[in-house]
């Protein structure tokens, strides 16, 4: 999301090749989506949906804006993820700030 200060604010979800723990909520990534996202070397993958990292793209210590993306998920899968995490973004309870 672009803010009034012309910076890009990000809500970043973790992707893991390990199954989620009992206390975690995650959505399994279908095989075709793994290929699209450049994760084809992983046999299985999950997107964690019970917490997210909050960062600013232009000031991030964690992201390299000059690096080419590995791939991308399809729009239908992204919409599924967005619907699952929308409550988190509204409450900010599961937000991990990466601004410092």
Please provide a written account of the structure.
The protein has 100 residues and is an alpha+beta fold. The protein contains two helices and six strands; from the N terminus they run βββαββαβ. The model has no long low-confidence stretch (mean pLDDT 85). It is 23% helix and 22% strand. The strands form two sheets. Strands 1-5-6 form a three-stranded mixed β-sheet, with no helix packed on it. It has a three-stranded antiparallel β-sheet with strand order 2-4-3. The chain has one domain (9-97).
Order of SSEs, N→C? EEEHEEHE
Number of contiguous helices: 2
Structural class: alpha+beta
How many angstroms separate the termini? 19 Å
Overall geometry comes to globular
User: Could you estimate the helical fraction of the residues in percent?
Assistant: 10-25%
Identify low-pLDDT runs: none
**What strand line-up does the widest sheet have?**
1-5-6
């Amino acid at each position: 999301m672009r803010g009034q200060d012309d910076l890009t604010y990000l809500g970043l979800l973790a992707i893991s090749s390990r199954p989620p723990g009992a206390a975690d909520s995650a959505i399994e990534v279908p095989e075709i989506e793994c290929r699209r996202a450049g994760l084809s070397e992983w046999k299985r993958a999950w997107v964690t949906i019970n917490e997210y990292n909050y960062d600013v793209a232009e000031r991030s210590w964690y992201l390299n804006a000059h690096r080419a993306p590995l791939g991308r998920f399809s729009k239908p899968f992204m919409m599924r993820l967005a619907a699952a995490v929308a409550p988190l973004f509204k409450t900010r309870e599961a937000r991990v700030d990466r601004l410092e």
